[in-house]
Amino acid sequence: MLRQQFGDKIDRAEVSCGDTIVYVRKSVLIAVMRWLKESPDQDYQYLADITAVEYRDGERPLEIVYELFSLQKLTQLRVKVELDKARALALPSVVSLWKGANWLEREVYDMFGVQFENHPDLRRILMWETYAEGHPLRKDFPLRGRFSRSEQVRQALNANPEAHYSMEELSIAEAYVDLPPEMRDRLARGERGRIPDPGDE
Amino acid sequence: MGQKRTVELDVATPGVNEAGEAQRYPLGVGRAPSFIDDSEPALGGDHMLVNIGPQHPATHGVLRLVVELDGEVVKRVIPHVGYLHSGFEKLGEYRHYNQLIPLTDRMDYLAPMSNNVGLALAAEKLMGLETTERCKVLRVIACEMSRIISHLVWMGTTAIDIGAFTPFLWCFQQREIIYNLQEMWTGARLTTSLTRVGGLMADIPDGFENGLRQFCANFPKVLDEVDRMLTRNGIWVGRTQGIGVLSGEDAINYSLSGPMLRASGVPYDVRKDRPYLDYETYDFEVPIGEHGDVYDRFLCRFEEMRQSTRILEQALDRLPAGPINIDDPRVILPGKTAAMSDMEAMIFHFKQVMEGVPAPVGEAYLPIEGPKGELGYYLVSDGTAKPVRWRVRPPAFINLAALPEMAEGHMLSDLIAINASVDIVMGEVDR
Lengths: 201, 431
What we know:
The complex is a heterodimer.
Chain A (H helix, E strand, L loop, with lengths): L1 H5 L3 E7 L2 E6 L4 H10 L7 E8 L8 E8 L6 E8 L6 E3 L8 H12 L2 E3 L31 H10 L8 H6 L2 H4 L2 H8 L13
Parallel strand pairs in A: 2-5, 6-7
Antiparallel strand pairs in A: 1-2, 3-4, 4-5
Chain B lengths: L47 E5 L11 E7 L2 E8 L7 H5 L4 H9 L6 H16 L5 H30 L3 H21 L8 E2 L2 E2 L7 H23 L3 H7 L7 H6 L5 H4 L7 H4 L20 H25 L17 H6 L1 H13 L6 E8 L4 E8 L7 E5 L1 H6 L2 H5 L4 H11 L3 H5 L1
Antiparallel strand pairs in B: 1-2, 2-3, 4-5, 6-7, 7-8
Protein backbone atom coordinates (compact mmCIF):
# COMPACT_ATOMS: atom_id res chain seq x y z
CA MET A 1 0.00 0.00 0.00
CA LEU A 2 2.66 2.48 1.09
CA ARG A 3 4.92 1.29 -1.65
CA GLN A 4 2.26 1.97 -4.28
CA GLN A 5 2.01 5.52 -3.06
CA PHE A 6 5.66 6.33 -2.56
CA GLY A 7 7.56 3.82 -4.68
CA ASP A 8 11.19 3.17 -3.88
CA LYS A 9 11.31 5.86 -1.20
CA ILE A 10 10.05 3.15 1.11
CA ASP A 11 13.08 1.04 1.87
CA ARG A 12 11.69 -2.10 3.41
CA ALA A 13 9.07 -3.41 5.78
CA GLU A 14 9.37 -6.10 8.39
CA VAL A 15 7.59 -7.58 11.35
CA SER A 16 9.24 -7.96 14.74
CA CYS A 17 7.43 -9.51 17.72
CA GLY A 18 4.13 -8.91 15.94
CA ASP A 19 4.78 -5.21 15.34
CA THR A 20 4.84 -3.88 11.78
CA ILE A 21 7.82 -1.70 10.94
CA VAL A 22 8.25 0.40 7.81
CA TYR A 23 11.53 2.03 6.85
CA VAL A 24 11.12 5.38 5.10
CA ARG A 25 13.62 7.76 3.48
CA LYS A 26 13.80 11.07 5.24
CA SER A 27 13.06 13.02 2.05
CA VAL A 28 9.49 11.70 2.03
CA LEU A 29 8.97 11.51 5.79
CA ILE A 30 6.52 14.40 6.04
CA ALA A 31 4.56 13.28 2.97
CA VAL A 32 4.31 9.71 4.28
CA MET A 33 3.32 10.84 7.75
CA ARG A 34 0.69 13.21 6.42
CA TRP A 35 -0.70 10.48 4.20
CA LEU A 36 -0.75 8.01 7.09
CA LYS A 37 -2.45 10.52 9.34
CA GLU A 38 -5.00 12.01 6.96
CA SER A 39 -5.81 9.39 4.36
CA PRO A 40 -9.11 7.81 5.50
CA ASP A 41 -8.07 4.23 4.83
CA GLN A 42 -4.89 4.66 6.90
CA ASP A 43 -6.06 6.93 9.71
CA TYR A 44 -3.04 6.72 11.99
CA GLN A 45 -4.13 9.74 14.01
CA TYR A 46 -2.36 9.00 17.22
CA LEU A 47 1.37 9.50 17.51
CA ALA A 48 2.25 7.42 20.54
CA ASP A 49 5.96 8.05 20.68
CA ILE A 50 9.05 9.36 18.96
CA THR A 51 12.41 8.00 19.94
CA ALA A 52 15.75 7.01 18.48
CA VAL A 53 17.87 3.89 18.54
CA GLU A 54 21.62 3.72 18.17
CA TYR A 55 23.02 0.21 17.84
CA ARG A 56 26.15 -1.06 19.50
CA ASP A 57 27.40 -1.95 16.04
CA GLY A 58 28.91 1.38 14.99
CA GLU A 59 28.32 0.68 11.32
CA ARG A 60 24.56 0.62 11.61
CA PRO A 61 22.72 3.87 11.04
CA LEU A 62 20.91 5.72 13.79
CA GLU A 63 17.18 5.09 13.63
CA ILE A 64 14.43 7.56 14.45
CA VAL A 65 11.33 5.66 15.48
CA TYR A 66 7.75 6.90 15.19
CA GLU A 67 5.15 4.77 16.90
CA LEU A 68 1.72 5.32 15.32
CA PHE A 69 -1.65 4.00 16.34
CA SER A 70 -5.02 4.13 14.63
CA LEU A 71 -7.79 4.88 17.12
CA GLN A 72 -10.47 3.65 14.71
CA LYS A 73 -8.92 0.50 13.32
CA LEU A 74 -6.90 -0.23 16.47
CA THR A 75 -3.81 -1.10 14.51
CA GLN A 76 -0.23 -0.17 15.16
CA LEU A 77 2.49 0.95 12.75
CA ARG A 78 6.10 1.80 13.45
CA VAL A 79 7.77 4.13 10.98
CA LYS A 80 11.55 4.33 11.01
CA VAL A 81 13.96 6.71 9.37
CA GLU A 82 17.60 5.69 9.10
CA LEU A 83 20.20 8.42 9.49
CA ASP A 84 23.75 7.85 8.32
CA LYS A 85 26.00 8.69 11.25
CA ALA A 86 28.78 9.88 8.94
CA ARG A 87 26.61 12.77 7.77
CA ALA A 88 24.77 15.47 9.67
CA LEU A 89 22.03 14.03 11.85
CA ALA A 90 19.03 16.00 10.64
CA LEU A 91 15.53 15.28 9.48
CA PRO A 92 12.29 17.23 9.10
CA SER A 93 10.16 17.81 12.19
CA VAL A 94 6.59 16.46 12.37
CA VAL A 95 5.38 19.16 14.77
CA SER A 96 3.28 20.60 11.94
CA LEU A 97 1.27 17.35 12.00
CA TRP A 98 1.28 16.53 15.70
CA LYS A 99 1.82 19.17 18.36
CA GLY A 100 2.66 16.37 20.77
CA ALA A 101 5.84 15.80 18.77
CA ASN A 102 7.27 19.03 20.16
CA TRP A 103 8.62 17.70 23.45
CA LEU A 104 9.34 14.25 22.05
CA GLU A 105 11.58 15.68 19.35
CA ARG A 106 13.24 17.94 21.88
CA GLU A 107 14.04 14.88 23.94
CA VAL A 108 15.54 13.06 20.94
CA TYR A 109 17.59 16.16 20.17
CA ASP A 110 18.74 16.39 23.77
CA MET A 111 19.64 12.73 24.12
CA PHE A 112 20.96 11.93 20.62
CA GLY A 113 21.89 15.28 19.06
CA VAL A 114 19.51 14.87 16.12
CA GLN A 115 18.49 18.16 14.53
CA PHE A 116 14.82 18.50 13.60
CA GLU A 117 14.33 21.00 10.80
CA ASN A 118 11.48 23.49 11.22
CA HIS A 119 10.99 22.59 14.86
CA PRO A 120 9.53 25.67 16.59
CA ASP A 121 11.62 25.48 19.74
CA LEU A 122 14.46 22.97 19.56
CA ARG A 123 16.09 23.29 22.96
CA ARG A 124 17.41 20.72 25.39
CA ILE A 125 14.64 19.49 27.63
CA LEU A 126 15.89 17.03 30.24
CA MET A 127 19.42 18.34 30.48
CA TRP A 128 19.95 22.02 31.17
CA GLU A 129 20.59 24.45 28.37
CA THR A 130 24.25 25.04 29.08
CA TYR A 131 25.02 21.33 29.38
CA ALA A 132 28.31 20.91 27.58
CA GLU A 133 29.04 17.18 27.78
CA GLY A 134 27.21 16.11 24.64
CA HIS A 135 24.24 13.87 24.10
CA PRO A 136 23.91 11.23 26.81
CA LEU A 137 22.19 8.38 24.99
CA ARG A 138 24.79 8.14 22.24
CA LYS A 139 26.81 4.97 22.49
CA ASP A 140 30.10 6.87 22.59
CA PHE A 141 28.95 8.74 25.70
CA PRO A 142 30.41 7.11 28.83
CA LEU A 143 27.98 6.01 31.51
CA ARG A 144 29.44 8.38 34.08
CA GLY A 145 29.52 11.39 31.80
CA ARG A 146 32.45 13.08 30.12
CA PHE A 147 33.38 15.45 32.94
CA SER A 148 34.68 14.32 36.29
CA ARG A 149 32.42 14.63 39.31
CA SER A 150 34.51 17.51 40.69
CA GLU A 151 34.31 19.35 37.38
CA GLN A 152 30.52 18.91 37.31
CA VAL A 153 30.21 20.26 40.86
CA ARG A 154 32.48 23.19 40.07
CA GLN A 155 30.41 24.15 37.05
CA ALA A 156 27.17 23.86 38.99
CA LEU A 157 28.47 26.11 41.76
CA ASN A 158 29.76 28.67 39.31
CA ALA A 159 26.58 29.01 37.26
CA ASN A 160 25.20 32.54 37.32
CA PRO A 161 21.58 33.08 38.35
CA GLU A 162 20.60 34.53 35.00
CA ALA A 163 21.58 31.24 33.43
CA HIS A 164 18.33 29.85 34.79
CA TYR A 165 16.29 32.03 32.44
CA SER A 166 16.34 31.83 28.68
CA MET A 167 16.59 34.94 26.51
CA GLU A 168 12.97 34.48 25.62
CA GLU A 169 11.94 34.46 29.23
CA LEU A 170 14.00 37.51 30.09
CA SER A 171 12.41 39.41 27.24
CA ILE A 172 8.92 38.57 28.55
CA ALA A 173 9.07 41.01 31.41
CA GLU A 174 11.18 43.41 29.40
CA ALA A 175 13.81 42.49 31.90
CA TYR A 176 16.17 42.00 29.04
CA VAL A 177 16.41 45.68 28.17
CA ASP A 178 17.03 46.55 31.80
CA LEU A 179 20.07 44.31 32.08
CA PRO A 180 23.48 45.92 32.20
CA PRO A 181 24.87 46.23 28.67
CA GLU A 182 27.75 43.93 29.42
CA MET A 183 25.43 41.14 30.53
CA ARG A 184 23.10 41.73 27.60
CA ASP A 185 25.96 41.35 25.15
CA ARG A 186 27.03 38.17 26.82
CA LEU A 187 23.52 36.72 26.66
CA ALA A 188 23.12 37.77 23.04
CA ARG A 189 26.26 35.85 22.19
CA GLY A 190 24.62 32.81 23.72
CA GLU A 191 26.89 32.74 26.76
CA ARG A 192 25.22 32.11 30.06
CA GLY A 193 26.94 31.81 33.38
CA ARG A 194 30.67 32.18 32.87
CA ILE A 195 32.64 29.08 33.75
CA PRO A 196 36.04 30.25 34.99
CA ASP A 197 39.06 28.19 34.09
CA PRO A 198 40.79 26.41 36.95
CA GLY A 199 43.86 28.57 36.33
CA ASP A 200 41.92 31.83 36.62
CA GLU A 201 42.54 32.56 40.25
CA MET B 1 -21.01 8.75 32.38
CA GLY B 2 -24.07 10.34 30.79
CA GLN B 3 -25.28 11.62 34.12
CA LYS B 4 -22.07 13.47 34.59
CA ARG B 5 -23.00 17.09 34.05
CA THR B 6 -26.28 16.90 35.97
CA VAL B 7 -24.73 18.51 39.00
CA GLU B 8 -27.75 19.72 40.95
CA LEU B 9 -26.70 22.17 43.56
CA ASP B 10 -28.72 22.13 46.71
CA VAL B 11 -28.17 25.76 47.36
CA ALA B 12 -27.17 28.52 45.06
CA THR B 13 -23.47 28.68 45.67
CA PRO B 14 -21.39 31.63 44.62
CA GLY B 15 -19.53 31.11 41.41
CA VAL B 16 -22.09 28.75 39.92
CA ASN B 17 -25.29 29.69 38.12
CA GLU B 18 -28.53 27.69 38.22
CA ALA B 19 -27.51 25.53 35.26
CA GLY B 20 -24.51 24.36 37.23
CA GLU B 21 -22.08 26.24 35.03
CA ALA B 22 -19.25 28.10 36.55
CA GLN B 23 -19.69 31.83 36.55
CA ARG B 24 -16.35 33.40 36.09
CA TYR B 25 -15.37 37.00 35.78
CA PRO B 26 -11.73 37.12 34.79
CA LEU B 27 -10.00 40.30 35.74
CA GLY B 28 -8.59 40.57 32.24
CA VAL B 29 -8.94 43.76 30.27
CA GLY B 30 -11.38 42.25 27.80
CA ARG B 31 -14.14 41.78 30.32
CA ALA B 32 -13.47 44.53 32.80
CA PRO B 33 -16.41 44.99 35.17
CA SER B 34 -18.61 47.93 34.20
CA PHE B 35 -17.96 49.87 37.39
CA ILE B 36 -14.39 50.65 36.33
CA ASP B 37 -14.24 54.16 34.98
CA ASP B 38 -12.62 54.12 31.56
CA SER B 39 -11.41 57.67 31.94
CA GLU B 40 -8.96 56.62 34.61
CA PRO B 41 -5.49 55.64 33.41
CA ALA B 42 -5.01 51.91 32.95
CA LEU B 43 -3.22 50.29 35.83
CA GLY B 44 0.21 49.14 34.78
CA GLY B 45 0.57 47.67 31.30
CA ASP B 46 3.75 45.81 32.14
CA HIS B 47 3.74 42.07 32.06
CA MET B 48 5.28 40.28 34.95
CA LEU B 49 7.65 37.33 34.93
CA VAL B 50 6.92 34.88 37.72
CA ASN B 51 8.93 31.80 38.46
CA ILE B 52 7.02 28.94 40.13
CA GLY B 53 9.02 26.03 41.41
CA PRO B 54 11.00 23.86 41.23
CA GLN B 55 10.60 23.71 45.00
CA HIS B 56 6.95 24.62 45.26
CA PRO B 57 4.35 22.24 46.68
CA ALA B 58 1.75 23.16 44.07
CA THR B 59 3.92 22.01 41.19
CA HIS B 60 3.77 18.41 42.46
CA GLY B 61 7.46 17.73 42.36
CA VAL B 62 10.41 19.51 40.88
CA LEU B 63 8.61 21.11 37.97
CA ARG B 64 9.51 24.70 37.22
CA LEU B 65 7.09 26.98 35.45
CA VAL B 66 8.14 30.36 34.14
CA VAL B 67 4.95 32.34 33.75
CA GLU B 68 4.26 35.60 31.97
CA LEU B 69 1.45 37.41 33.72
CA ASP B 70 -0.72 40.29 32.64
CA GLY B 71 -2.19 41.28 35.97
CA GLU B 72 -3.41 37.93 37.18
CA VAL B 73 -4.00 36.42 33.75
CA VAL B 74 -1.49 33.90 32.47
CA LYS B 75 -0.21 34.96 29.07
CA ARG B 76 2.42 32.35 28.59
CA VAL B 77 3.74 29.33 30.43
CA ILE B 78 7.18 27.89 29.81
CA PRO B 79 7.65 24.61 31.69
CA HIS B 80 11.13 23.44 32.58
CA VAL B 81 11.59 19.78 33.36
CA GLY B 82 14.63 17.65 33.98
CA TYR B 83 15.42 18.45 37.61
CA LEU B 84 14.91 14.79 38.49
CA HIS B 85 16.55 13.32 35.41
CA SER B 86 18.30 10.13 36.46
CA GLY B 87 19.35 8.69 33.12
CA PHE B 88 17.42 5.43 33.53
CA GLU B 89 17.42 4.81 29.80
CA LYS B 90 21.20 5.07 29.69
CA LEU B 91 21.61 2.92 32.80
CA GLY B 92 19.32 0.27 31.33
CA GLU B 93 21.73 -0.36 28.46
CA TYR B 94 24.17 -1.73 31.02
CA ARG B 95 21.66 -3.94 32.83
CA HIS B 96 20.00 -7.32 32.30
CA TYR B 97 16.27 -7.31 31.67
CA ASN B 98 15.45 -8.34 35.22
CA GLN B 99 17.74 -5.63 36.52
CA LEU B 100 15.63 -3.02 34.77
CA ILE B 101 12.71 -3.75 37.06
CA PRO B 102 14.10 -1.82 40.07
CA LEU B 103 14.58 1.15 37.73
CA THR B 104 10.90 1.10 36.81
CA ASP B 105 9.94 1.34 40.50
CA ARG B 106 11.58 4.69 40.68
CA MET B 107 9.87 6.22 37.68
CA ASP B 108 6.21 6.56 38.52
CA TYR B 109 6.79 6.07 42.21
CA LEU B 110 3.11 6.50 43.02
CA ALA B 111 2.24 3.35 41.08
CA PRO B 112 5.37 1.19 41.07
CA MET B 113 3.64 -2.14 40.56
CA SER B 114 2.03 -1.24 37.25
CA ASN B 115 5.42 -0.05 36.00
CA ASN B 116 6.93 -3.41 36.96
CA VAL B 117 4.16 -5.26 35.13
CA GLY B 118 4.63 -3.17 31.99
CA LEU B 119 8.32 -3.90 31.75
CA ALA B 120 7.88 -7.62 32.37
CA LEU B 121 5.21 -7.79 29.67
CA ALA B 122 7.42 -5.96 27.17
CA ALA B 123 10.38 -8.25 27.89
CA GLU B 124 8.11 -11.29 27.55
CA LYS B 125 6.82 -10.00 24.23
CA LEU B 126 10.42 -9.59 23.09
CA MET B 127 11.34 -13.12 24.19
CA GLY B 128 8.08 -14.70 23.11
CA LEU B 129 7.09 -16.00 26.53
CA GLU B 130 3.58 -16.68 27.77
CA THR B 131 3.05 -16.45 31.53
CA THR B 132 0.87 -18.69 33.65
CA GLU B 133 -2.81 -17.98 34.35
CA ARG B 134 -2.26 -17.26 38.03
CA CYS B 135 0.52 -14.84 37.19
CA LYS B 136 -1.74 -12.94 34.77
CA VAL B 137 -4.50 -12.53 37.33
CA LEU B 138 -2.05 -11.45 40.02
CA ARG B 139 -0.58 -8.89 37.64
CA VAL B 140 -4.06 -7.51 36.96
CA ILE B 141 -4.49 -7.16 40.72
CA ALA B 142 -1.15 -5.35 40.95
CA CYS B 143 -2.07 -2.97 38.11
CA GLU B 144 -5.46 -2.08 39.54
CA MET B 145 -4.10 -1.60 43.06
CA SER B 146 -1.58 0.81 41.57
CA ARG B 147 -4.26 2.66 39.66
CA ILE B 148 -6.26 3.16 42.83
CA ILE B 149 -3.37 4.47 44.93
CA SER B 150 -2.18 6.73 42.16
CA HIS B 151 -5.63 8.25 41.67
CA LEU B 152 -6.05 8.59 45.45
CA VAL B 153 -2.88 10.64 45.71
CA TRP B 154 -4.00 12.67 42.73
CA MET B 155 -7.39 13.38 44.22
CA GLY B 156 -6.06 14.23 47.66
CA THR B 157 -3.33 16.56 46.52
CA THR B 158 -5.48 18.25 43.88
CA ALA B 159 -8.15 18.87 46.47
CA ILE B 160 -5.51 20.50 48.68
CA ASP B 161 -4.32 22.64 45.78
CA ILE B 162 -7.84 23.89 45.29
CA GLY B 163 -8.48 24.35 48.99
CA ALA B 164 -10.24 21.25 50.32
CA PHE B 165 -8.20 19.56 53.01
CA THR B 166 -10.42 16.77 54.32
CA PRO B 167 -10.59 14.48 51.26
CA PHE B 168 -6.81 14.37 51.34
CA LEU B 169 -6.89 12.62 54.71
CA TRP B 170 -9.52 10.11 53.63
CA CYS B 171 -7.65 9.36 50.41
CA PHE B 172 -4.38 8.81 52.19
CA GLN B 173 -6.01 6.55 54.79
CA GLN B 174 -7.25 4.29 52.01
CA ARG B 175 -3.92 4.45 50.25
CA GLU B 176 -2.30 3.29 53.46
CA ILE B 177 -4.38 0.11 53.38
CA ILE B 178 -3.15 -0.70 49.87
CA TYR B 179 0.39 0.15 50.87
CA ASN B 180 0.11 -2.32 53.73
CA LEU B 181 -1.06 -4.99 51.29
CA GLN B 182 1.78 -4.10 48.96
CA GLU B 183 4.22 -4.43 51.82
CA MET B 184 2.73 -7.80 52.73
CA TRP B 185 3.21 -9.04 49.17
CA THR B 186 6.58 -7.60 48.19
CA GLY B 187 8.17 -6.50 51.44
CA ALA B 188 8.37 -2.92 50.23
CA ARG B 189 5.93 -0.06 50.19
CA LEU B 190 7.42 2.00 47.42
CA THR B 191 10.12 0.07 45.60
CA THR B 192 8.13 -3.07 45.02
CA SER B 193 10.08 -4.72 42.14
CA LEU B 194 7.20 -7.15 41.98
CA THR B 195 7.61 -8.82 38.62
CA ARG B 196 10.29 -10.90 36.98
CA VAL B 197 10.54 -11.73 33.32
CA GLY B 198 8.34 -14.80 33.05
CA GLY B 199 6.62 -14.48 36.39
CA LEU B 200 6.56 -12.74 39.73
CA MET B 201 8.99 -12.25 42.54
CA ALA B 202 6.62 -13.87 45.03
CA ASP B 203 3.16 -15.30 45.34
CA ILE B 204 0.64 -13.50 47.49
CA PRO B 205 0.95 -14.36 51.20
CA ASP B 206 -1.77 -15.75 53.46
CA GLY B 207 -4.24 -13.10 54.46
CA PHE B 208 -3.66 -10.99 51.39
CA GLU B 209 -6.85 -12.09 49.67
CA ASN B 210 -8.93 -11.36 52.74
CA GLY B 211 -7.29 -8.00 53.19
CA LEU B 212 -7.93 -7.01 49.60
CA ARG B 213 -11.54 -8.21 49.74
CA GLN B 214 -12.09 -6.14 52.84
CA PHE B 215 -10.59 -3.13 51.10
CA CYS B 216 -12.84 -3.66 48.07
CA ALA B 217 -15.86 -3.82 50.35
CA ASN B 218 -15.04 -0.64 52.27
CA PHE B 219 -13.48 1.49 49.60
CA PRO B 220 -16.68 2.43 47.70
CA LYS B 221 -18.08 3.90 50.91
CA VAL B 222 -15.08 6.17 51.23
CA LEU B 223 -15.47 7.13 47.59
CA ASP B 224 -19.08 8.03 48.29
CA GLU B 225 -17.95 10.30 51.09
CA VAL B 226 -15.41 12.03 48.88
CA ASP B 227 -18.12 12.25 46.23
CA ARG B 228 -20.34 14.10 48.68
CA MET B 229 -17.53 16.42 49.61
CA LEU B 230 -16.37 17.34 46.14
CA THR B 231 -18.61 16.49 43.20
CA ARG B 232 -21.40 18.90 44.09
CA ASN B 233 -19.32 21.32 46.09
CA GLY B 234 -19.78 24.84 44.80
CA ILE B 235 -16.18 25.87 45.33
CA TRP B 236 -14.86 22.72 43.71
CA VAL B 237 -17.21 23.04 40.73
CA GLY B 238 -16.42 26.70 40.36
CA ARG B 239 -12.70 26.12 40.45
CA THR B 240 -12.68 23.21 38.02
CA GLN B 241 -15.49 23.47 35.46
CA GLY B 242 -14.55 25.17 32.24
CA ILE B 243 -10.90 25.35 33.30
CA GLY B 244 -8.12 24.02 31.10
CA VAL B 245 -10.46 22.85 28.35
CA LEU B 246 -8.94 20.71 25.63
CA SER B 247 -11.05 19.40 22.74
CA GLY B 248 -10.86 15.74 21.76
CA GLU B 249 -9.12 16.66 18.53
CA ASP B 250 -6.48 18.66 20.36
CA ALA B 251 -6.03 15.93 22.93
CA ILE B 252 -5.24 13.42 20.17
CA ASN B 253 -3.01 15.92 18.44
CA TYR B 254 -1.05 16.38 21.66
CA SER B 255 -0.73 12.58 22.02
CA LEU B 256 -2.39 12.73 25.42
CA SER B 257 -3.42 9.48 27.00
CA GLY B 258 -5.20 8.09 30.01
CA PRO B 259 -7.79 10.16 31.89
CA MET B 260 -6.49 13.32 30.21
CA LEU B 261 -7.51 11.99 26.80
CA ARG B 262 -10.73 10.34 27.93
CA ALA B 263 -11.92 13.47 29.74
CA SER B 264 -11.90 15.14 26.32
CA GLY B 265 -14.28 12.50 25.00
CA VAL B 266 -11.88 10.17 23.21
CA PRO B 267 -12.65 6.59 24.26
CA TYR B 268 -9.13 5.20 24.04
CA ASP B 269 -8.16 2.89 26.84
CA VAL B 270 -5.26 0.51 26.25
CA ARG B 271 -6.98 -2.13 28.39
CA LYS B 272 -9.92 -2.19 25.97
CA ASP B 273 -8.27 -1.32 22.68
CA ARG B 274 -4.97 -3.20 22.85
CA PRO B 275 -5.78 -5.79 25.51
CA TYR B 276 -3.02 -7.36 27.55
CA LEU B 277 -3.27 -9.70 30.56
CA ASP B 278 -6.71 -10.85 29.32
CA TYR B 279 -8.30 -7.53 30.20
CA GLU B 280 -10.91 -8.19 27.51
CA THR B 281 -12.39 -10.92 29.73
CA TYR B 282 -13.03 -8.56 32.66
CA ASP B 283 -16.29 -6.69 32.93
CA PHE B 284 -15.60 -3.01 33.45
CA GLU B 285 -16.45 0.31 31.89
CA VAL B 286 -14.27 3.11 30.69
CA PRO B 287 -15.53 6.50 31.86
CA ILE B 288 -15.50 9.19 29.19
CA GLY B 289 -15.82 12.91 29.79
CA GLU B 290 -17.29 15.36 27.34
CA HIS B 291 -15.95 18.81 28.13
CA GLY B 292 -12.27 18.09 28.59
CA ASP B 293 -11.93 20.39 31.59
CA VAL B 294 -10.42 19.83 35.02
CA TYR B 295 -13.79 18.76 36.40
CA ASP B 296 -14.20 16.02 33.80
CA ARG B 297 -10.72 14.76 34.52
CA PHE B 298 -11.69 14.55 38.16
CA LEU B 299 -14.86 12.62 37.32
CA CYS B 300 -13.00 10.25 35.01
CA ARG B 301 -10.40 9.38 37.61
CA PHE B 302 -13.05 9.12 40.27
CA GLU B 303 -15.07 6.63 38.23
CA GLU B 304 -11.93 4.72 37.27
CA MET B 305 -11.34 3.98 40.93
CA ARG B 306 -14.80 2.40 41.19
CA GLN B 307 -14.17 0.39 38.04
CA SER B 308 -10.77 -0.71 39.34
CA THR B 309 -12.46 -1.97 42.48
CA ARG B 310 -14.81 -4.01 40.28
CA ILE B 311 -11.86 -5.46 38.39
CA LEU B 312 -10.12 -6.31 41.66
CA GLU B 313 -13.20 -8.19 42.88
CA GLN B 314 -13.48 -10.13 39.63
CA ALA B 315 -9.78 -10.94 39.69
CA LEU B 316 -10.02 -12.24 43.26
CA ASP B 317 -13.00 -14.38 42.29
CA ARG B 318 -11.24 -16.00 39.36
CA LEU B 319 -7.76 -16.29 40.90
CA PRO B 320 -6.69 -19.80 39.81
CA ALA B 321 -4.32 -22.04 41.71
CA GLY B 322 -1.04 -23.06 40.15
CA PRO B 323 2.47 -21.77 39.68
CA ILE B 324 3.26 -18.08 39.27
CA ASN B 325 6.36 -18.61 37.16
CA ILE B 326 6.71 -20.26 33.79
CA ASP B 327 8.46 -23.60 33.76
CA ASP B 328 11.67 -22.63 31.98
CA PRO B 329 14.96 -22.87 33.88
CA ARG B 330 16.68 -20.55 31.41
CA VAL B 331 14.41 -17.66 32.39
CA ILE B 332 13.31 -18.31 35.96
CA LEU B 333 15.83 -18.69 38.75
CA PRO B 334 15.69 -22.07 40.49
CA GLY B 335 14.66 -22.22 44.13
CA LYS B 336 17.37 -21.82 46.70
CA THR B 337 17.29 -25.45 47.86
CA ALA B 338 17.52 -26.70 44.28
CA ALA B 339 20.38 -24.34 43.47
CA MET B 340 22.29 -25.55 46.51
CA SER B 341 21.74 -29.28 46.04
CA ASP B 342 21.09 -29.97 42.36
CA MET B 343 23.99 -29.62 39.93
CA GLU B 344 21.86 -28.68 36.93
CA ALA B 345 19.88 -26.09 38.84
CA MET B 346 23.11 -24.58 40.07
CA ILE B 347 24.42 -24.23 36.53
CA PHE B 348 21.24 -22.51 35.41
CA HIS B 349 21.43 -20.26 38.45
CA PHE B 350 25.02 -19.36 37.66
CA LYS B 351 24.33 -18.67 34.00
CA GLN B 352 21.35 -16.47 34.77
CA VAL B 353 23.12 -14.44 37.40
CA MET B 354 26.35 -14.03 35.45
CA GLU B 355 25.08 -13.79 31.87
CA GLY B 356 21.46 -12.84 32.23
CA VAL B 357 18.64 -14.00 30.00
CA PRO B 358 19.44 -13.33 26.33
CA ALA B 359 16.61 -12.03 24.18
CA PRO B 360 16.40 -12.84 20.47
CA VAL B 361 17.27 -10.11 17.95
CA GLY B 362 14.24 -7.91 17.50
CA GLU B 363 12.26 -5.15 19.09
CA ALA B 364 8.98 -4.83 20.90
CA TYR B 365 6.78 -1.94 21.96
CA LEU B 366 4.21 -2.80 24.56
CA PRO B 367 1.82 -0.23 25.99
CA ILE B 368 -0.19 -0.74 29.15
CA GLU B 369 -2.82 1.52 30.64
CA GLY B 370 -0.92 2.97 33.55
CA PRO B 371 -2.69 5.26 36.00
CA LYS B 372 -1.35 8.31 34.19
CA GLY B 373 -2.02 7.06 30.67
CA GLU B 374 -0.44 4.91 28.02
CA LEU B 375 2.76 3.63 29.60
CA GLY B 376 4.78 2.07 26.81
CA TYR B 377 8.02 0.14 26.96
CA TYR B 378 10.08 -0.12 23.81
CA LEU B 379 12.86 -2.69 23.96
CA VAL B 380 15.42 -3.32 21.24
CA SER B 381 17.63 -6.37 21.46
CA ASP B 382 20.70 -7.36 19.48
CA GLY B 383 20.65 -10.90 20.81
CA THR B 384 22.53 -10.27 24.07
CA ALA B 385 21.15 -10.23 27.59
CA LYS B 386 21.26 -6.42 27.78
CA PRO B 387 18.95 -4.24 25.71
CA VAL B 388 20.45 -2.01 23.02
CA ARG B 389 17.79 0.53 23.78
CA TRP B 390 15.30 0.72 26.55
CA ARG B 391 12.75 3.43 26.01
CA VAL B 392 9.86 4.35 28.24
CA ARG B 393 6.94 6.18 26.74
CA PRO B 394 6.24 8.39 29.73
CA PRO B 395 2.55 9.33 29.84
CA ALA B 396 3.02 12.16 32.34
CA PHE B 397 5.78 13.76 30.26
CA ILE B 398 3.64 13.80 27.14
CA ASN B 399 0.54 14.97 29.01
CA LEU B 400 2.52 17.78 30.59
CA ALA B 401 3.54 19.06 27.16
CA ALA B 402 -0.04 20.27 26.67
CA LEU B 403 0.07 22.43 29.82
CA PRO B 404 0.85 25.74 28.06
CA GLU B 405 -2.01 25.18 25.62
CA MET B 406 -4.45 24.52 28.47
CA ALA B 407 -3.33 27.19 30.90
CA GLU B 408 -2.74 30.23 28.75
CA GLY B 409 -5.54 32.74 29.15
CA HIS B 410 -6.58 31.48 32.56
CA MET B 411 -5.83 33.03 35.93
CA LEU B 412 -2.71 32.20 37.87
CA SER B 413 -4.65 30.22 40.46
CA ASP B 414 -6.26 28.19 37.67
CA LEU B 415 -2.82 27.33 36.37
CA ILE B 416 -2.28 25.46 39.64
CA ALA B 417 -5.54 23.57 39.20
CA ILE B 418 -4.73 22.72 35.58
CA ASN B 419 -1.24 21.60 36.42
CA ALA B 420 -2.67 19.41 39.17
CA SER B 421 -5.20 17.91 36.75
CA VAL B 422 -2.41 16.62 34.49
CA ASP B 423 -1.36 14.24 37.28
CA ILE B 424 2.37 14.41 36.86
CA VAL B 425 4.99 12.46 38.73
CA MET B 426 8.34 14.04 38.09
CA GLY B 427 10.17 10.76 38.52
CA GLU B 428 8.46 9.62 35.36
CA VAL B 429 8.54 12.93 33.50
CA ASP B 430 12.29 13.23 33.91
CA ARG B 431 13.27 9.56 34.22
